[in-house]
Design goal:
The protein is an alpha/beta fold and 307 residues long. The protein has 13 helices and ten strands. It has a five-stranded parallel sheet with strand order 2-1-3-4-5, with helices on both faces. Helix 6 packs across helix 8. Bound molecules: (2R)-2,3-dihydroxypropanoic acid (DGY).
Amino acid sequence: MKPPVFLHSWVPDAILEDLRSRFEVDHVDVFETGILPPDEFARHAEGKHGIMVLAAPVGAELMKASAGTLKVVANVAVGVDNIDVSAATEAGVQVTNTPGVLTDAVADFSIAMLLAVGRRMIESDRYTRAGKFQGPSFPLFWGATVVGETLGIIGLGRIGQAVARRARGFGLELVYHNRNRVDAAVEAELGATWLPLDELLAAARYVLLLTPLTDETRHLIDADRLARMRRDAFLINVSRGPVVHEAALLDALQRGVIAGAALDNVVLTPHIASGTVETRHAMVRVAAENLTACLTGAPVPNPVNKV
Ligand code: DGY
């Protein structure tokens, strides 16, 4: 009998076919259904040996209820904040993720966000579409300079380093903050200087958040930290939303604590940093490889926990 698995994800046909040849597949295409409510998710997960999951929370209760049966939760993302990893470890469930395949897409997007917010692309687009542009007008939508400005990256991991390489091409000075400094050789290659968080916030014109969401980073950027930023600074959050205290950010924007005092100087995107055709296919492929490896006894390419 084929091991039963639950795929809570969009899955391209070729990968679905491959998984169906190995497993008894229960597939919910979340692109069509949206993320299932927890009770429905739990119903689908019941008795399954593997779960491939996009975005839905997989908590301690489900891990406990599935202990002994469930072997793997293959996340279709690099961030695993939707999964209770320590409960998984306790229940002997392997958690995997999809590092690497989205690095370039997210790094490109980070630069796109920086340019869009600094050069006021969204406001200008809205203004022009509204038919307000009456011909050349000199002081119109003046934005921020990029070349020679300082970019502060909070979270200089794989993606942060890819952004840093791109940033050099834009003539940005680079400072970063990580709990642990990266190797001196990497700092030298990137021309990146480590700073304590508060010093970074005070120095950077552009502050880019690329940190995972953990108990430590939740609300890392709160009212106090926003107040430490330059008044002409831009905050670019490409990490999970709760890394920033949303109400504090709104207040800071409204009061001009950081640049973009008006709300229309904010660029909002629907979680598409890794959203290229190639990257999203690769993420599902990697998640499927992780799921398959766990259930066939092969070496697991991207384990998150040790079981
Ligand atoms: C990730 O990999 O964590 C991304 O947020 C998915 O889009």
